[in-house]
Structures are given as C-alpha cells and as structure tokens.
Amino acid sequence: MLPMRVLLAISKYLPEYSGAAIRLHRTYLRLQNLSPDLKVHVLAGSVTWSGVREDVVEGIPVHRIGPRVFDWWRRGRGIGGWTWRLGTLEVAHQAKRFLDRGGWDVVHVVGTSGITATAMAWASRKQCPLLVELTSRMDTPVQRLPVLRFVTPAPDLTRRTVVMAISPQLAERAREEGLVDNVWTRPNPVDETRFRPTLPEARGEARRELGVPDDALPLGSSVAQFIPRKNHAFLVDMLAGCSQGLRILMGGPDWPVPGRTGEGESLARVRHLIQASGIQDRIWLRPGFLNQSTVLRASDVYLMPAWDEGLGTPLLEALAAGVPVVANAAEPAFRFWLEGAGRGGGVLAPLEPEAWVRGIQEALRIPVETRVAVAERIRSIAGTEVIDAGYVRILTALAGSKPSARLRVASILGSEG
C-alpha cells in the first residue's frame, strides 16, 4: 500500500454506538497493522456532544462535531425542522474548516449526515480521491446539504471515486445514479478468528459468561440495537405463544438520547411486553454491548426478525460460526444470503409467530456437517483477509489516480475476464 492519509468521514464514531463505526474501526486497525504507512483520521458527527471535541480512540484521532441544537433538546424545547436544518449547516461549516486543513490522500465517506455531505462535496470540489460506502437502506450515493442543495452543484462521483455497497440492493441504488463500473459490491467483513464453528463443550462456558442457564433447552439469541425496526417485540410475541421449551437471549445497545437518563422507548416497551406476557423466566434481556462471538457460542439458533436492513452482518457472523439462522423472509438482504452462499444454513420465515416456531424447529434440525460447510463458504467470501485485501487495492488505486480518472473496480480487483 502507498503511504497515505485517509480521512474517514462518518455520522457517528466510538464510543457512540454505530455498527458501521465499530466495523470500520476494526478494519482500519487491521490495515494499519498491515501497513504502518497508512494513517487514519476520523471526522465524525455526534448525537451526544455539542460543539467541537477532539478524541483519540485506540490510537486513531477523532475530530467530533455535534450541533448545538442538542442543547435545546436537553432543555426539553424540542427541535423543529428548520432548527435541525440550521444545526446541520452549523456542523457543515465546522466540518469544512477541518477539511480545509488538507493533506488527505483519500476521503472515505460512510453514512448520511451534515458531516458526510460536506466531506463528499469538499472532495468532489477539490478533486480529492473519494470512497463512498453505502451501509444502510437509507443511504444514497449522492448527498446534498439542506438549503444549499438548491444553489450548489451535486458532487461528481464518476471521477476519482469508488462506491462500495454492502448488498446488491444498495448497489442497485448506485446504478440508479448512473454509477456502474466504479461500484464495489461486497459484504461486511467477518472475523475468521472470532466466528467459526466450535465444539459443543464451549457452549456451557459461554452461557455461564452471559449469565444464562446451561441445560438441554434450546437457546435462541438476537443482538441488535433497541430501535423499532430491529423488531424485538415480535420475538416476545412469538415466545409468549410458543409452548415449546425455547428460551431467548436478547441484547444490544439502547438508543442514545442526548442529555437524558433512563431507557429508550423501544427497550422500555420490550420490558413491558415481557412482563405483560409472563415469560420472564424464558427470556433474558442484556441491554448494552455484548461480545457477539460469545453469544453465538452460547446459542442453538440465531433470530433476525428485523426489517429495512442494508445487510445484517450478524446473519453472516452466525452462519460463519455454524449457528443456524431464522430470518425475516421479506428482507431482500436476508434472502440474498440464505438463498445463495448461506443456503442450507438457515430458514426464511414470514413475520408470523407460528411460522417462526416452525422455522426454529427446522433450523435446529440442520445437520452439523451442513452448518460447517456453510460456515466455510461464508468465510471464503466475507472473511477479513478477503475484504481487507480489496480495501488495500481500492485505497491504493484511489490514492494513485489522476484527477480525471474514471476507475473500474473490476480492473482494480483483477476480476475482469
């Protein structure tokens, strides 16, 4: 890899919860270990802090900018549409001041916010190599700032730019914008050292670590942020109507509310449903960050009833760990994997409690040999070694490109026939 300075512009960054931030933080730590000449800096928004804040997270410098409208929110005054737009423009102004320091060889944009729109516009105007990563169903390749979108040109993503999409559905969104040759469709990386089939004896140790009983009853698990679209409530309803000896471990971070204490609305609703259903002895809530590899070692089946998913990385991690999955059949990203490389390693079920009970029973009958074969296929496609090698080639090609270059991902990755 060429010596280079990469600026990662992202909506949120650690310690604030963001699945994309966690993944990219680990990715860039690995890439910096592979190439000490790679230096990464982060420009991030914030939902917790207002104003400008400098941090260092495991050696990676973070320049964090939060809009001062959060001060109004903390005082209970609310945020109207125009107030929020002004807050976005305030963040954009501060982000531009930071970007103008220059010296970036590649700008890597992830998420959708005032930070990311500003970074994209700045890189396009300065003809700085740009890597645009689409990670959720809400993302779009072309971002514009509110109000200013009517008086400023759209960023040019055809030159010196690569768009990364973590699913074919997101790649299609790029194609709708006329971007084809410079689009890299690839899954999020799965750490082969953490997610691989383990011996049954490891289950007891993992369950004790998580504080759940180690017995013969099957344990389903679901780890996701407590927000409505992750659909924790459906699992509670399903379990309440299930006469089988199934239990569920449910964990994940709560949705952060700046300046407030107590649980978010989604987690509080899940607690209420559990109490009202009388299934406290069959379901364990573990709000907060959980070690996903430990959860999977403890689990007999992994449950994904979410909707509006860009990919659903836990699905790949479960398959790579040899744990069968039951997933929402209506989600295109889930169908892509469970009907493709992950075929045989899980079950697609409509969001109906009875269908999920049947799906779980079917998933528990999947032979160990099939699970191991599926795990090997997933790691060969989405393992960190494979994905990191692609990152290195893409970043190197971007940093070494000419201002007018129209990049072809197939040529960069050596996949042209």
Describe the model:
- This protein has 417 residues and is an alpha/beta fold.
- The protein folds into 2 domains: 4-189 and 384-413, Glycogen Phosphorylase B (Rossmann fold); 202-381, 3-Layer(aba) Sandwich (Rossmann fold).
- The chain is built from 15 helices and 14 strands.
- The strands form 2 sheets. An 8-stranded mixed beta sheet has the order 3-4-2-1-5-6-7-8, with helices on both faces.
- Strand 10 (247-252), helix 8 and strand 11 form a beta-alpha-beta unit.
- Helix 3 (81-99) packs across helix 4.
- The two termini are 24 Å apart.
CATH architectural category of the largest domain: 3-Layer(aba) Sandwich
CATH H-level name of the largest domain... which superfamily? Glycogen Phosphorylase B
User: Per CATH, what is the topology of the largest domain?
Assistant: Rossmann fold
Task: Round the mean pLDDT to the nearest integer and report it.
Answer: 88
Say how many strands there are: 14
Globally, the shape reads globular
Name the beta content range: 15-25%
Q: Taking Cα atoms only, what radius of gyration do you get, to the nearest Å? A: 22 Å
Q: Structural class of the secondary structure composition?
A: alpha/beta
Order of helices and strands: EHEEEHHEHEEHEHEHEHEHEHEHEHHHH
Spans with pLDDT under 50 lasting ≥5 residues?
A: 73-77
Number of domains: 2
Which strands sit side by side, in order, in the main sheet? 3-4-2-1-5-6-7-8
Largest sheet: 8 strands, mixed
- Fraction of helical residues: 25-40%
Distance between the termini: 24 Å
Number of helices: 15
CATH class of the largest domain, please?
Answer: Alpha Beta
